[in-house]
Amino acid sequence: MDQTRNSSIALCFFLKKEKEKKRKWDHEEGLGLVMRRLGGIILSIILHLTASSVWAKPRGDHPLSNIAIHKASIALHDSAYIKAAPTILGLRGQNSEWVSVEYNFPNPSVNDWIGVFSPANISASICLPESPRVSPPLLCIAPIKYQFANYSNPKYQDTGKGLLKLQLINQREDFSFALFSGGLDNPKLVAVSNAISFANPKAPVYPRLAQGKSWDEMTVTWTSGYGINEAEPFVEWGPQVGDRKLSPAGTLTFSRNSMCGAPARTVGWRDPGFIHTSFLKNLWPNSMYKYRLGHRLFNGTIVWSQTYRFRASPYPGQDSLQRVVIFGDMGKAEADGSNEYSNYQPGSLNTTQQLINDLGNTDIVFHIGDICYANGYLSQWDQFTSQIEPISSTVPYMIASGNHERDWPGTGSFYGNTDSGENVV
């Protein structure tokens, strides 16, 4: 991006100089020279960018990749403890909630850290070797987030006592917190907390709207813990005032072996749950609609999401103002400050909040690649869809694949970098 920006500045500077010279030239001769020189510099820029793109190495390693979880060892300490409260989250239907984590370690160090694991059971029984010749590690699942023990406890190194406030989102499984010594390079598990969970971990969450194939169609996609053998997914929707209708949804998922390689199929793997998509058709132009996500269990019970709203598109050719937001490379970040080092992606929170603040002046969003920089850690997709939910549930959120969603050697991607690992093979 910096190379592109510098090249653009150079091009603009060149054009300015040529414009000044042009006043002194004969119109025909000067214009011809400008065009020849302009063509030359554009060709140089294209060749420069092409060469730099081919040979550039991926930058911006995910924070979770700094944890050598495959080297983790058990070093439980009798006097160490870690506990979390409350034990049940989302009792009022919330999909996110703050948790207090209290801990104590008699031999504290500035390198001690807290990992948030989900599912709560982090035993070796769930490890799968990547090769029959390689034994699985003791711990084979990276935490979904982490924070250093002294983050909000400046005296931790002296007292060994600390308290963290961490935000959790509904991700279909329970959670536990683990205290590690030895830093990120040589983690030693010294204490594990009690398990905590959401009241309904399988609830439908994080709807994402997209413009349908026709102007009068809206696509709704969401995530849940309900497979088709447990419940029937659908959307209840209709105008602000009037009758509601039901539209069925399809259900898809994928497995660990569908991933291209590590870390997506090793330490970064996490069950994605089920992804549901429904199509709301025959919308009236410019009309406001309400909708909510539903899962009808086979005992007749219906599990509902909260209610959301969107405005249908105008009729094609209609004289109307359409306000479009286009960007790429946003990423995600944690509101509680976890998972961050070297200012990895905290700016994404600012961008998201600005979009939310101006949502009343936005009709559609285009996120054109490098969406959340999960880089093979699948838990991050839930974190991202939760972060953008106020936007994606209200206006169409259109996406395109970037190198961090697409690239992997041997998969047909334009570049052979290992930026993703999440492609389905």
TrEMBL record:
Residues 82-200 form the Purple acid phosphatase Fn3-like domain. GO terms for molecular function: acid phosphatase activity; metal ion binding. It comes from the Eukaryota. Coiled coil: none annotated. Its EC number is 3.1.3.2. Residues 207-311 form the Purple acid phosphatase N-terminal domain. Its main location: secreted. Keywords: Hydrolase, Secreted, Signal. It holds the Pfam family Pur_ac_phosph_N. The keyword Signal applies. It catalyses: a phosphate monoester + H2O = an alcohol + phosphate. SUPFAM superfamilies: Metallo-dependent phosphatases (SSF56300), Purple acid phosphatase, N-terminal domain (SSF49363). GO terms for cellular component: extracellular region. Residues 323-417 form the Calcineurin-like phosphoesterase domain. It is found in: Secreted. Belongs to the metallophosphoesterase superfamily. Purple acid phosphatase family. Homodimer. This is Purple acid phosphatase. It comes from Stephania cephalantha. The lineage of its organism: Eukaryota, Viridiplantae, Streptophyta, Embryophyta, Tracheophyta.
